[in-house]
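fyi for ur records
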Amino acid sequence: MRVTTAFKRLMDLPGVSVSEVDFQPARVVVTVRLRSRKLFCPECGFTTKARYDTRPVPSWWRHLDLGRWRLEVRADLRRIDCPTHGARTEGVPFARAGSKFTRDFEDLVGWLATIMDKTALRRLVRIDWDTVGRIIERVMATGLDKRRLDNLFVAGVDEVSWRKGHSYVTLVSNHTTGKFVWGKEGKDTATLDSFFDDLGEERSAQITAMSMDMGPAYEKSARKEHHAVNAVICYDPFHVVQLVTTALDKVRREVWQDLRKLPDQEAAKRFKGARWALLKNPGDLTDDQAATLRKLKRRGGDLWRAYALKEALRAIFAGDLTEDEVGELLDRF
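which gave:
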C-alpha cells in the first residue's frame, strides 16, 4: 500500500485526496488536494465554480497527533468572491471557519473540556490556554443541537461555581432527557431572564414544572409574565433538607446554652459532642454517636422533635417511604 493511501485512510478527512507525506523529526506534514471543483464561502456557505484568485502560500491545520509526532495538514487553496463577505479563502470540509485545527482535533478538545480541567487539557494536547477557549467557542457554535430547547416541559435550574467559587454559571437542564440545554455566566434574575428570552413565550408557557434552589432570584424570573407562568416550582430537596438541618442546629445550640446555665457544668460539655450525632445521616454514625443519639431520644423534647422532622423530610425526598407512610409522618408534625 502506498504511504499516501495509508494516510488517506488513517486520517479519514472528508473531501480530500492525499498527494504527499513528509516525515520530519518532530512532525509529519500531509499535503492534500480538495476533490470538489466548487468553492464555498466559510462564513455563509455560498458556492460557486468561479475563483477570485489563488493564495500564494499554502494553508495548514493541525490534526490529531500521530503518537509522539505532531500531524499537520497542508493544502493550496483558492479564494472566492462572496457576494456577502467579499474575497475569502475558500472553506474546507474538514475544518471550521477561521480555525487552524481540523474539526476532529477541535471535537476532541471539546469533549476533553467536559471531563477534565483546562490546565490538564492544555498540557495533554499541547496548546495554550487561550487557544483552548477559542476552540471551545467554535465547537459550541456549531455543535449545539438547535432543537435542544424544544419539548422542554420539566426543567431544572441551578448555579455552578468556578474559579474557586468567585464566579458562577447558571445551567438549565431538561429533566426528561437528563441533559443540560442552556447556560450563561451569572446567577441572578437577569441571567435566567436571558434563558426565557432564548426560549420564547410559546415554549416558556409549555413548561409544567421547574426545579430550583430556595433563593429568590430564579423564582422571580420564572414568575415573570411570558416566562414559566404555568409551571409548578419545585424546590431542590437538597436545599430543603439543608434548611431543616440548619433549623435543627439552631435548636441544638439553644439547648446547649440552657445546659450551660445549670449547676452541672459537665452536662453542657457532654451535650456539645452531640452535634454530629444529630446532623449526620443515621447510617453514617459511629458507635459512640449512635449511643448519644439513643440518649437524646430517651430525653425527648424539642431537640428530638426537630431531629425527627429532619429525618422525616430526608426519608421523603430519598423515596424511602410509601405514600401512606409519608402521610403518617406529616400528620405527626
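The chain is about 45% helix and 20% strand. thats all i got for now
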